[in-house]
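Readers of this paper often ask what the protein records in our data store actually look like. An entry from our holdings is shown next, in its original layout:
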Amino acid sequence: MENHEEHENKEMDHSKMDMTKEEHAKMDHSKMDMTKEDHTKMDHSKMDHSSIPMGMEGHDHHKMMIADFKKRFWLVIVLTIPILIISPMIQDLLGYHYLLPGNPYILFALSTIVYFYGGWPFLKGFVGEVKKGAPGMMTLIAMAISVAYFYSSATVFGLKGVDFFWELATLIAIMLLGHWIEMKSVLGASKALQLLVSMMPADAHRVEGDKIVDIKLENLLKGDVILIKPGEKIPADGVILEGSSYLNESMLTGESKPVKKELNDKVIGGSINGNGSLKVTVVHTGKDSYLSKVIKMVEEAQKTKSKMQNLSDRAAKWLTYIALSIGFATLAVWLILGFPFVFALERMVTVMVIACPHALGLAIPLVVAISTAVSAQNGLLIRNRTAFEESRKITLLLFDKTGTLTKGDFGVTRIESVDEKYTSDEVLRLASALEQSSEHPIAVGIIKKVKENKVTIPKPENFNAITGKGVEADVDGKRVKVVSPGYLKDEKITIPEDAYSDAAETVVFVLIDGKLAGYIALADEIRPESFEAIKTFKKNNIKVFMATGDNEITAKSVSDKLGLDGYFSEVLPHQKVEIVKDLQSKKEFVAMTGDGVNDAPALAQANVGIAVGSGTDVAAETADIILVNSNPQDIANLILFGKATYRKMIQNLLWATAYNVVTIPLAAGVLYSSGFVLGPAVGAVFMSLSTVIVAVNAQLLKKQINKK
């Protein structure tokens, strides 16, 4: 069916996507530098989206990082075993003696490899943190291993004292393990930009006179005329020169219904053509295109979010300051008291090595690994652990409508018979005969319903289009018409009072032999789970808003049905970002939930971005958390899981730092006058005990989350 006047709701004005020259000037993709998290840095500084071959997958930096930590960890483990066996301090602790010829030099050689190869990621991370003026876990680890290595090396070559090579090796091994566990549990690397780029086809069909020439997309120029065949992606923004078709723009604009496009209408690169052929004059290419502007918005939002610092880094920062202060104070005090430099130095080194407890390296990664695994079993995939930690603070949820609160399909919601001769199934069966060859969204929705009900579609004869009103044909010896309300008005046929139960519905009427037999209503259905989810959020004092590309009537209808606190209609991607920013400026901690490319910038900008699993890869890669089952109710679980996980992290950090509170003063020598100074061997026992407590406590999180 080619025309239903009631179906033609207000289409989105894509002229809004034209930005000012000032905005274009800001969108210089040649200077990109997007960071997602410390372990997932991706250098886009040389990436220019106007020249990138579309569909380029790019380099999976995150997987390389995991592989690198894994390789370093196993080599360090292999070297740590002999270091422990031949270390004098460990031998004294365990009560055995086994010294090789040149024992100190063997320890020095093995430990040198461990320090420079195993410790390299932490030394490199330390430099990065110092440059940013934000000391964190890398600084703390680098400080501890460097003090242990250089002091121990000095004892090999003449300095009086005991070595800490075994402490150095075990510390590096455990820290590598902690980072490896964490990186494996968090999906991490953001591929959003590459996925956005890959939405564009690699080639375009350029019209050159009477010939059609296939060219690479990067060779397309403004003013070129291109041919878009049925079912193909639109390769560039442009204006229709010839032809008409229905375009699926839902993943770009959020409009749930395919949009009819005719002569002089604008089309967006990346949208999908229906069954009609189009000739389009190219208006925007490269960085001026609508999709590139979306890419820029995602990138800018991710830059802003990457400044958030996770819990373990904040703890490590303060521990670094404390360890350095106490370490140097220890050295100064013992020197002032007149003790030998070697004695004072040993006390300082012991303090600094103990100040980086092995437990702190596992306190957070173990909790993260367990919480991500258990959450995944409950339908939540965690990509950004900082945002997951912060989910407990959510005060406002902003939902995209299409595909999130609703199913995302323009489907049949009601079939009603008004003539007792025909059942509702018969009304659907006869209507489907006329709709089976049409590309119209209403026809597609009706045929989908027929397939769900396993109805056999009869063959139509004498098919005819009623211009601007609907279609008609002979089916099973009856003259059947599927028409718009306008046709009924023209023919003075009364429209049933209950035909329109919902302002968001589109209704078509079925006439058999000139008499009204029934009607079929279609809409984008609300997910049944959405109702319960909204109730749960309100019970927890979380405000719920909706932002959608759909028109005002549809948006208001969905908002009223669900009882939302408010809604925004006819919203484009850059407007969704502005909505999120505006809400954040009002001191709201915003979680954004969406499923499409149009949601990607807002997902990146929000404090917590949540993608629906049934949506696009772009939305999923931009979000912090993914709802595997596309169930809004799972967001309530997310908040509960986030609170439980944060509590467990705090408990583990308290255990890990409690070790410091006890051991650092003892290592510094506060009880020296009583004849007690904490030696490295006793410190090692405390260290092991602290690590075991942290590991056991992390395991208890499984039971706690599963009770939710």
